[in-house]
Amino acid sequence: MYGRPLHLLFLLWSVLWALAVPVYSQTAQDEPLSGPDSHETGQGPHGHLFGDWGGERTRLLERGVSFDFQYVSDSLSNIKSEQIERFASWNRIRGTVDIDFGALIEQPGLYFHATALWQGGANLGTYLGLLTSPSGMSSADTCRLDSWWIEKRWLDERVTARVGQFAGQDVYGAQHYSASFIFEPMGYALGNLFTTFESFDPPSTPAVEVRVVPIHYLYVKSMVEAEDREPFAHNPTGLVPQFRGVPISISEIGFTPGKNAASVRAFDDVEGRKGYSGLYRFGASYNPGKFTAPPSATPRSGNYLLYWMASQALWRVDPKGAKGLDGTFAYDWSPANINRNNTMLTAGLRFNEPLPLRIHNTMSLGYVQNASSAKPARQPRSTTPTSARSTRSASTLASLSWSWSCWRERRSTKASRESPSGSTNCWKWPSRLPTDWMQRTRKESSTETSSRRTFS
After folding, report:
1. Is the peptide bond between 32 and the residue preceding it cis, with omega within 30 degrees of 0?
2. Helix, strand, coil shares of the chain as percentages rounded to 5?
């Protein structure tokens, strides 16, 4: 019903891009609107394992072309639980290219972005039947094109639009401090965004987005994307855009004290932590499709989710520096008569540069509470087995982690999860991969370490 109109809208938007008259911008960012493949570590002389390739990277960058290869791994294991002890490791290799057509062919404000990946491993959260995944990367084994888009900016970057294939969760409901945390609701995006089938990476879907910055510290953005309830099955390579469901609409308004709203990206980086800047957001996602909420077998139209998020620099040793304490808080809500997991709360603290080292280092403390409604409803994420979904309930999780980076970043985390009955589920992981190993047991403790490398 919706597939053909959405397909036509996508084609019409692409034609408008081709016919658009270039408007010269007064300033230009070095990169397009960043997604999950952006880095916490900077791209300076030590930003890549193999350096500047004898100046070749610099020469390409002057022509507007930048590229990157990175390897990230999450490795976890449950120390003690009802399930058999198991070690799980999730690995990801990603390649990304960004093109600034202003430098390449004198078309200021026009950008292109594409990223592809290979990933595989074991998912510990699914294995243990958890609401809160211990890894923000785990999903399904795949080798595919993740996302691509063409982006145009006008009026000194106060108006930005893009069209292509990208995920809603990469930019709507995404945790601004995600680079400093590992487990999913804080290391990527709010977990309940799946209730409206908002797309996630790597199985992104066709989408269009417009962002407007009416005043210096305020932005408004909205996107429409194609729904796909089985994205890995319908588009295994990511090369053929799929229009299999209804159009999902997502909108967000953000207030950015201490920083120009036009420069704000979904995920922060080390360079952007200087000073007392903050980001306050309210967003909503709406899916007009059919949803069935047990015990009724009659489908009903429409489902939505609301979220509130705040990230703020709380204290700085130097008001213009990055060393100090940051805080973050997020809460989402969706109708309990449709969604079993209808609320989630996350909170965290991050201490930048706690150790007197010449390399970047952070220490982070995170907390997640995922509540279930009294009326059990379907869980949308297709990668979770029905048996595991039917036994999940409210949960809380706390995580303490510290990290440092030079050419490489390592993370260590101590974490525990407590179930409603009072039993504690724990796990241990080194690195960044999807894992299937959490379960219920009486008293458990575990540790996690994570390493991240950027190389090319």
Report:
1. no
2. 15, 45, 45
Q: What is the DSSP letter of 437?
A: B
DSSP string, 134-163: S-SS-S--EEEEEEEEEEEEETTTTEEEEE
Q: Are strands 247-255 and 324-333 parallel, antiparallel or unpaired?
A: unpaired
For residue 305, the one-letter residue type is L
* Nearest residue to 132 via CA among 198, 73, 185, 79: 185
Gap between the terminal Cα atoms of the chain: 45
Tell me how many degrees the CA angle 333-335-340 measures, rounded to the nearest 5.
90
- Tallying the residues shown for the chain, one arrives at 456
- Specify whether the CB–CB gap between 364 and 400 falls below 8 A: yes
Its pTM stands at 0.77
Phi, psi (5° rounding) for residue 284?
-150, 145
DSSP state of 130: -
- Residue spans of alpha helices (H) in 208-343: 231-234
Structure tokens at 14: 């692409």
What is the tens place of the pLDDT at every residue in 348-369?
999 998 988 887 888 999 999 8
When mean pLDDT is compared over 64-73, 79-88, 139-148, the highest value belongs to 139-148
Give the H/E segment covering residue 22. none
Residue with tokens 């959260």: 125
297-332 b/e (C-beta count within 10 Å ≥ 16 → b) = eeeeeebbbebebbbbbeebeeeeebebbbbbebbb
CA distance 31 to 153: 12
pLDDT category, 395, cuts 50, 70, 90?
A: low
Residue 187: C-alpha distances to residues 177, 267, 282, 401 (Å) = 8, 10, 19, 12
408-418/142-154 β-pairing: unpaired
CA distance 433 to 443: 24
